[in-house]
Amino acid sequence: QVQLVESGGGLVQAGGSLRLSCAASGRTCSSYAMGWFRQAPGEQREFVAAINWSAGTTFYADSVKGRFTISKDTDKNTVYLQMNSLRPEDTAVYYCADSDHGRTYDYWGQGTQVTVSS
């Protein structure tokens, strides 16, 4: 069973930076892709960024393009989300997700809280 453990959330002032990490364990073969999603209070979960595990191709939501960067460390089975120029509207619980075949996200982490104060 694949397990995803996120870390790196916290409280930061607007304009600041945070880096989230997501370590995957229990895999017997490589992921197709890993991604980050977020959910603000009273809102639906939304896509933030994703990375294709073999090609390294990245995808971003328009709201974070130019501010957030997703990356991976294949040896550590870890995906990162570098978040710069944070805004209060980035406040949410951030979830890591893992896709076996690219059709759906099959595994989810427990989430890490990111709070951006104005």
What topology emerges from the helices and strands here?
Blueprint: E1 3-7, E2 10-13, E3 18-25, E4 33-39, E5 46-52, E6 58-60, E7 68-73, E8 78-83, E9 92-99, E10 107-108, E11 112-117
Short descriptors:
mainly beta, 118 residues, 53% strand, 7-stranded mixed β-sheet, 4-stranded antiparallel β-sheet
Quick take:
This protein has 118 residues and is mainly beta.
Number of helices: 0
Distance N to C terminus = 40 Å
Give the C-alpha Rg. 13 Å
List the quaternary state of the chains. single chain
Broad structural category: mainly beta
Largest sheet: 7 strands, mixed
SSE order, one letter for each helix or strand: EEEEEEEEEEE
Shape: globular
Note the beta-strand portion.
Answer: over 45%
The overall strand count is 11
State the low-pLDDT regions, or none: none
Q: Please bin the fraction of helical residues.
A: under 10%
Nearest-integer average pLDDT: 95
How would you characterize this protein structure?
The protein is built from no helices and eleven strands. The chain is an all-beta fold. A hairpin with a 5-residue loop joins strand 5 and strand 6. The protein is globular. The protein starts with a strand and ends with a strand. The mean pLDDT is 95.
